[in-house]
Amino acid sequence: MALSVPVAESTRQFTAQPRKLLINGKWVEALDGETFESFDPGTGEVLAHVAHGKAADVDLAVKAARAALDGPWGRLTPSERGRILHRIGDLIAENTDELAELESLDNGKAKTVAAGADVPLAADLFWYMAGWATKLRGSTVTPSLPYIPGGEFLAYTLKEPVGVCGQIVPWNFPLLMACWKVGPALTCGNTSVLKPAEQTPLTALRLGELCLEAGLPDGVLNIITGFGDAGARLAEHPDVDKVAFTGSTEVGKLIAQAAGRTNLKKVTLELGGKSPNIVLDDADVEAAIAGAAAGIFFNQGEVCTAGSRLFIHEDLFDEVVDGVTKAADNIKVGHGLQPDTEMGPLVSTEQFERVTNYLKIGADEGAQTRTGGSAIDGPGYFVRPTVLVDATADHRVIQEEIFGPVVAALPFADVDDLAAKANDTVYGLAAGVWTRDISKAHKLAARVKAGTIYVNSYHLYDAALPFGGYKQSGWGREMGEEVLEAYTQTKQVIVAL
Questions:
Q1: What is the pLDDT of residues 425-479, one digit of tens each?
Q2: Which of 43, 239, 416, 444 is least surrounded by Cβ atoms within 10 Å, i.e. has the fewest?
């Protein structure tokens, strides 16, 4: 691993050793012995060699997860589960620096961002979910059965685990998304077969080590690194009871179809977005500029909630566009391990080609570039922070998810017309509203069809808040109390007295 910046010895050792699959509490090679390369997107160089799990490996992992569900894990008390989950959170926090370094090397994001946001949020997710382990309870009901005169009955409900969960996570927040999936599944007493993205497998594997160190029984968490064929096997596997996926809407539809072909397993999907960030005419302009820039350039724009459509009242349009353009020009772009880096590279050559292709599409459609609009020469997958104007509602850069540091600014004059424009997308994941008038904020929040509405803020996430989208942004919710419904099933019991 050739880097121009130093890395900790623990990181060097972790990447130097071939990484294996986690199946039934053991680190094992793929059945056919194959591996694949994980790259440092900041240099384009090979970072690590990782086991290439395939369908046969998934089958072994599912078998181990089923045995653990029916064995020691299923016999633990909720309190015992909660203590293990809390310990996992502790270990994540204790290893913040190493996890942040691995995340930066594998994904490209700034280590300072990973250490300040990704890792603390991952630890907090486990701490929050640990508290729910002892609070999953049903209810008692007094039945009214008029067709059985004089009958006396006791009825109650039970919350039980769904079973074996196949969990497929993306490459933009590899550790955090793995925790969003695994934490609630284990809280509810399920077992998991986790498939991290092939571009970013390393922190998921390190999470597996920490889970074992915390005392998680063998087979409760299994990790299969690999490509789409492994994910497809999880989605269609007849002994998987639920599949949870975060990624593109296109792949999400394939996941849902595969799940329905076999055992009609439960499905939750957290998918794409094309979120509107709206600046009203009475907004605090400086705050709105900073929020608009953060809304799109945070994490290289590789965020499903990115505020990629920037709607600005015509009275403020030039001022806000100028401000966001200056903010983009001042972003320090560099390798994620450089201490002054604010924005790193895109995650892979494929994503680099996708984003740069959209820049060409935008230019061909007539959008004008205020800043950016091109790649940065040199090693690594770097793209300049980009601000576009003069795009229209039918342009692809307005309608399609780019998933990169590219924002298109559009003026508006009328709030009623604006609400329709904001909703003119197949997605409904998030939106931002910038205004000094709280009444306007609440009214507009009610009209925008999205799962999260940020008011005078952007990119805020908390383990206690449910996260998910409307329309083609997905099914179900992550985090908060609401996610527990996705990982439990309700049984009713009626007893004649």
A1: 999 999 999 999 999 999 999 999 999 999 999 999 999 999 999 999 999 999 9
A2: 416
pLDDT in tens, 298-328: 999 999 999 999 999 999 999 999 999 999 9
179 is catalytic: no
Q: What are phi and psi of 226, to 5 degrees?
A: 170, -155
In the chain, the N- to C-terminal Cα span, in Å, equals 71
* Active-site choice (270, 302, 401, 478): 270
Query: Which residue type sits at 161?
Result: P
Q: Are 193 and 160 part of one and the same domain?
A: yes
DSSP 372: -
CA distance linking residue 275 with residue 311, whole number of Å: 10
Same domain, 215 and 315: no
What's the rounded Cα separation, in Å, for the pair 312 and 325?
14
Domain at 303, CATH number: 3.40.309.10
Residue 59, number of CB atoms within 10 A of its CB: 15
DSSP 3-state of 90: helix
116 near 456, Cβ under 8 Å?
no
What is the rounded CA–CA span in Å between residue 434 and residue 312? 10
Please check whether residues 126 and 233 belong to one and the same domain: yes
Q: How many domains does the chain have?
A: 2
Whether 179 and 207 have beta carbons less than 8 Å apart is answered as yes
- At 140 the three-state DSSP class reads strand
Neighbours of 193 (CB within 10 A): 33
Q: Residue type for 374, please?
A: S
Catalytic residue among 165, 198, 304, 478: 304
In a domain, 1, yes or no: no
450/482 same-domain check:
no
The amino acid sitting at 46 is V
Residue 6 lies in a domain: no
Task: Give the chain's length.
Answer: 497
For the question of residue 270 being annotated catalytic, the response is: yes
118: domain range? 11-271+473-494
Spatial contact of 383 and 352, defined as CB atoms under 8 Å apart: yes
